[in-house]
Amino acid sequence: VRFAPGDRVRVAVGNPPGHNRAPRYLRGHTGVVERQVGSFPLPDIRATGVPDAPLDELYTVRFSSAEVWAGDGHPGDELRADLFAAYLEDA
Amino acid sequence: VSTTAHHRNAELQARVNALLDAVERAGVVTRTEVDERAERFAQSANPANGAQVVARAWSDPGFAERLAADATTAITELGFSMGHQRNIELHAVFNTEDVHNVVVCTLCSCYPVGLLGPPPAWYKREAYRSRVVYDPRGVLREFGLEIGEDRKVSVWDATAEARYLVIPRRPAGTEHLAEAELAELVTRDCLIGTAVPEAPRS
C-alpha cells in the first residue's frame, strides 16, 4: 500500500502518449488521500490490449477548489477524483 | 443533427455492424442474444431504483448506516446490484446541512446506470463536464438550485472504478409519507445532485 488516508499527494504533471485517466485540470495540484477504493488494472496499460494489465492501487483524493482554481474557487468547496497510484507522487 | 454528427453516427453504426457480424460468425454470441440483453438492461436500469434506495435510507437509519459504510452490498438488500459492472464499487454520498454533493465524470459519462437509468444528454456534454468542476455553484444555479454560502459544495469526479450516488436530504413536511411515497419525490437529477427533492404541495 503506497498511500494512507491523510497523506498529501500531488498529481504528476505530464502529457503521456496513449490512454490516461488523470484529469488534466488536476495535474500538478495537491490533494489529500481520503481512502483506497481498491486495486484495479491500470487503464493506461489495459488500453494497449495486453491480456493481463498489472493492478494498481486506486485512491479517492480530495482537493480544495481554492487550491485547484486559486482565487476563482469558492472557499470551502471541494473536488474529489479517483486516481491511480501511478498518477500520484508524495507532496 | 449536423451533417458531421450524422456522418459520425453512420460510421459508428457501420463499425458496430461489422463487429456484430464478426462475433456472430465466430459463434461468440448471436444478434438476438445481444438485442435481448440490451433490452433486459434498458428495462431494469431506471431512476426509480435509485429513488427506492434513497427512500429506504430516509426511513431506516440502520440501512442508511450500512449504505454509508458499503453501498455496493447495501443495495442488494433491495434486490439491486452493480450487475454487469462487476468490479465497480458503489459509494453513497450524503447531502447534509453543511455539504451539497454533485457528481460528474469529466473523462466520459460514468454514473451508476442501473440505479439512475441512461445518462441524460447534458450529463454527457462537455459543457456540464468541464464547467461543474470549476463553477459548480453557477452550474447548479442554472438547474434552479441555489446553494447557500454557509454550505460546502463537493464535486465527485467519477474517473475510475467507483460510481457515486447522491443521497439527498429528506424534505421537511414529509414525516407522514410512506416509503413508496417518499421514493416518488426523488428524481434522477436528485441522484446526480443537480436537483433536490421537494415535499409534495398540499
Helix-strand blueprint:
The complex is a heterodimer of chains A (91) and B (202).
Chain A: E1 8-11, E2 30-41, H1 43-46, E3 55-64, H2 65-69, E4 78-84, E5 88-90
Antiparallel strand pairs in A: 1-2, 1-5, 2-3, 3-4
Chain B: H1 3-25, H2 31-44, H3 47-59, H4 61-69, H5 71-74, E1 89-94, E2 99-104, H6 113-116, H7 121-124, H8 126-134, H9 136-142, E3 152-157, E4 162-167, H10 179-183, H11 188-192
Parallel strand pairs in B: 1-4, 2-3
Helix pairs in contact in B: 3-4, 8-9
Descriptive labels:
heterodimer, A: 91 residues, mainly beta, 5 strands, globular, B: 202 residues, mainly alpha, two-stranded parallel sheet, two-stranded parallel ribbon
Structure commentary:
The complex is a heterodimer of chains A (91) and B (202). With 91 residues, chain A is mainly beta. Chain A has 2 helices and 5 strands; from the N terminus they run E-E-H-E-H-E-E. Chain A is globular and about 45 Å long. The model of chain A has no long low-confidence stretch (mean pLDDT 95). Helices cover 48% and strands 12% of the residues of chain B. Chain B has helices spanning 3-25, 31-44, 47-59, 61-69, 71-74, 113-116, 121-124, 126-134, 136-142, 179-183, 188-192; strands at 89-94, 99-104, 152-157, 162-167. Chain B has 11 helices and 4 strands. In chain B, 34% of the residues are buried. At the A-B interface, strand 2, helix 2 and strand 4 of A face strand 3 of B. Strand 4 of chain A pairs parallel with strand 3 (152-157) of chain B.
Short description:
The complex is a heterodimer of chains A (91) and B (202). With 91 residues, chain A is mainly beta. Chain A is 10% helix and 40% strand.
